[in-house]
From TrEMBL:
InterPro entries: Kinase-like_dom_sf (IPR011009). This is Aminoglycoside phosphotransferase domain-containing protein.
């Protein structure tokens, strides 16, 4: 998009944001850009406009004018609502300057400009070509600022299994890493299974090593989802969704729970605490748990495993990660009923000194509800860091996890 704007209007821009209409009924959206350098002459019949010109403007998509009006009004009012750092004017220049400084300090010469890549709700990505290959920059959202420091620490312990970190700014949640290539896309079931069977034990080994440093990882800002803290956090989570519940039997939606659902969750608070305690008693030590470990966040090449995107990580029970990984196995290999068991065994075998094989199934069942709640807590923190349209897009995430937790708690572990 930035390149096309440069081609059409000779404008150097970076994309700050995508603004959508405040209701799902209106699909209109606009992109917000920041210009850089000297502005070139405008094409014939073109001119710059501000908010005072809106009543004179007609757009091909009327809804876009409404979105533009709302965005300009918010900016005129100093954007009182919460914003993500990279939507601020000047942020890209500061990030680019930091990238250049860190490259110089690392003795690496840039061979081109900093290029903006696609942006997501929780992060912003750029890259720059150097004499030795691409270098990638990632800025994590404030709720995930622990990711650079956590990645750097894990990379020191397991350089063969994590991206090579060139520099971090822990306060701003910035990280620069060396290129590790594309993530291979597997097509056959055999290839997929081989990847999962390679990743599972490597992940467990990382977690076994990190278990002794769980307090240090927590100090880096990783959320504390240890089993001793989860029951209280679950109770607060239930009370939070209760405040938004619908009192009418059929009045709930994807975004809210019904009173009946909340009441059932309340009755299962003691059962949730019991499962957390029972899981703790099995003896697997708590460590770092990667809650977004799926085929898009690991790469396997010639048997070598690389695990990345540790933003959604917590200090908690290691089996929270296995629960997430097995979900991905079931999604990608729905017809191979033996695959989840094979992957689980490959993972659990690394914990054989802590838990005998005849207790593995019990451990997985006990970990299911706490793992769901851990992800719900992350989603709550993430969505509460947003406002307006951004929050609305993800409004059903916590509710969906709470419904899943309820279903699991209603089943015998």
């Amino acid at each position: 998009m930035n390149a096309e704007i440069k081609r059409m209007f000779r404008l150097e821009v970076t994309t700050l944001d995508r603004i959508q209409a405040p209701t799902t009924a209106d699909p209109s959206s606009i992109f917000v850009h920041e210009t850089h350098g000297t502005l070139p002459p405008l094409p014939p019949h073109a001119r710059w406009c501000d908010s005072s010109d809106l009543d004179k403007i007609e757009l091909a998509v009327p809804g876009q004018l409404r979105v533009l009006t709302a965005w300009l009004a918010a900016n005129d009012n100093a954007r009182a609502e919460q914003t993500l750092p990279w939507t601020d004017i000047g942020w890209n220049a500061a990030a680019s300057a930091w990238i250049s400084t860190m490259l110089q300090e690392s003795g690496v010469s840039a061979a081109g400009p900093v290029e903006q890549m696609g942006f997501r709700a929780w992060s912003r990505h750029s890259r720059v070509r150097t004499a030795t290959g691409w270098v990638y920059f990632k800025a994590s959202a404030p709720v995930f600022t622990h990711e650079p420091a956590v990645t750097q620490l894990l990379a020191q312990w397991f350089p063969e299994h994590l991206p090579r970190v060139i520099a971090v700014d822990a306060n701003r949640g910035w990280m620069m890493t060396a290129d590790f290539g594309d993530v291979p896309r597997r097509r056959s079931g055999a290839e997929l299974l081989a990847d999962y069977l390679a990743v599972a034990p490597r992940l467990a080994r990382i977690q076994r090593h990190a278990a002794g440093a769980a307090p240090a990882i927590a100090i880096l800002g990783c959320p504390d989802h240890r089993l001793e803290t989860l029951p209280e956090q679950f109770c607060a989570l239930v009370l939070g969704v209760a405040a938004r519940a619908s009192p009418r039997p059929g009045g709930h939606s994807q975004e809210t729970l019904s009173d009946a659902e909340v009441n059932r969750l309340v009755t299962y608070i003691p059962e949730f605490a019991r499962r957390c305690a029972a899981l703790a008693e099995l003896g697997i030590p708590e460590s770092i748990a990667h809650l977004d470990i799926w085929r898009g966040n690991f790469a396997v090449r010639n048997g070598e495993v690389l695990i990345f995107d540790w933003a959604e990580s917590v200090v908690g029970h290691p089996l929270f990660s296995l629960d997430k990984l097995l979900r991905d196995v079931r999604t990608t290999m729905p017809n191979d009923l033996s695959a989840p068991a094979q992957v689980a065994a490959a993972y659990m075998n690394e914990w054989a000194e802590d838990l005998p094989a005849d207790r593995w199934t019990q451990a997985l069942r006990l970990a299911a509800a706490p793992a769901i709640v851990s992800r719900a807590l992350l989603w709550r923190a993430a969505t509460e860091s947003l406002s307006g349209e951004r929050r609305r897009i993800y409004a059903d995430a916590v509710t969906a996890h709470m419904r899943e937790a309820l279903t699991n708690l209603e089943e015998a572990p």
